[in-house]
Amino acid sequence: MEKTVDLRSDTVTLPSAAMRQAMFQAELGDDVYGEDPTVNRLEALAAERLGKEEALFVPSGTMANLVCLLTHCGRGDEAIMGHLAHTFLFEAGGSAAVGGIHPHTVPNQPDGTLDLDDIEAAIRPPDNPHYPHTRLICLENTHNRCGGAVLTPDYMAQVRALANRYDLAIHLDGARIFDAAVALGIEPAVAARGADSVSFCLSKGLSAPVGSLVCGSAAFVQEARRQRKILGGSMRQAGVLAAAGIVALESMVDRLVDDHRNARQLAEGLARLPGVILDPATVQTNIVIFALAPDTLSASELVARLAAHGVKMGDIGGCRLRAVTHYGIEADDIDRVLVAATQVLAAGG
Ligand code: TLP
């Protein structure tokens, strides 16, 4: 049986042998007492890599973002975010459901940014009783629904200057911030500069089985720790998971360039196929989003027919598909995907 080439997400990655070994050998303690040495090591390492004072280990990227929003905002406060932000689209409305936080969306530009004028127009005058208090601006780097687009340090600095003028905080959903850093050739701490809080995931391109981190000032992380407790996200001998996270940070970052190269190869190949709408130059990291012309297959038909060839992609609606490269996907797997896609699209609707 040929292996399935699963490009639905980088969340499908399995832990490396080194991770499994580290998990087996991890030194453990009760993390709610602050006594798990492996969790403590991971948190220190994460804070150092992201250039923040402290970090907090949480079970998922969704919880990381929620903990941050709950720490920044009280009930009825407003958080400005992109209309394609993961926090807005794909987190089950958690910040509103749990925290009573009012999301105020502004359009995401195709490059993942929010226009500075749009952000400024969304900020509420603080002295008018009709309005919620604006507290927070949420950004996302890389931007999932904008095809893995990267935010530059220059853009971050501009949003920081705007936030300072209005005394607002910035949260960065950096689920894939290591992809951004590698694509830009900068340290993750530089990519995170200007953000008061950053969340990032170990369980996507970095291939750990479980876990995300929240990074910020010591005072921020102290309150975030309480919010994690409220959400039931405090874990006990979590070092068994943190051990894989340490391996992820120490040995899985540099190889992200391979994912980016494979994504580019995939995008260039797909763009040559009839019916595929895609500009490969827009692919900056490991996410390829493309559309199908109306006279070809629907996205769900393409997904189903590729599956018959052992290739999995995601139907993301509106005639669009998403393919994500990751650890375990090699250049010859991309060749196989392109052969399958060529056959399926040539066969037509
Ligand atoms: N994204 C998942 C799906 O939820 C769409 C994926 O397959 O890409 N922030 C960003 C930018 C994300 O892409 C994700 C996961 C999360 C947060 C949430 O992380 P988890 O899945 O760990 O809760």
Overall description:
By secondary structure, the protein is α/β, with parallel strands linked by helices. Helices cover 42% and strands 17% of the residues. The protein is built from 14 helices and 13 strands. It has a 7-stranded mixed sheet, sandwiched between helices. A 4-stranded antiparallel sheet has the order 9-10-13-12. Strand 12 (314-317) and strand 13 form a beta hairpin. Helix 1 runs antiparallel to helix 11 (239-251) and helix 3 (61-72) packs across helix 10 (218-230). The protein is globular. The structure holds ligand TLP. Residues 9, 11, 60-62, 65, 86, 90, 140, 144, 173, 175, 201, 203, 212 line the site of ligand TLP.
Key structural traits:
binds ligand TLP; seven-stranded mixed sheet; single chain; globular; 14 helices; alpha/beta; 349 residues
What binds here, in terms of ligands, is: ligand TLP
Work out the strand percent. Answer: 15-25%
Shape: globular
Counting H and I runs of at least 4 residues, what is the number of helices? 14
- Uncertain segments are none
In short:
The chain has helices at residues 17-25, 37-50, 61-72, 86-89, 94-99, 116-122, 153-165, 177-184, 188-191, 218-230, 239-251, 256-271, 299-307, 331-347, and strands spanning 5-6, 54-58, 78-82, 102-106, 134-140, 169-173, 197-201, 212-216, 276-277, 287-292, 311-312, 314-317, 320-324. It has 349 residues and is α/β, with parallel strands linked by helices. The longest helix is centred in the C-terminal third of the chain and has 17 residues, at 331-347.
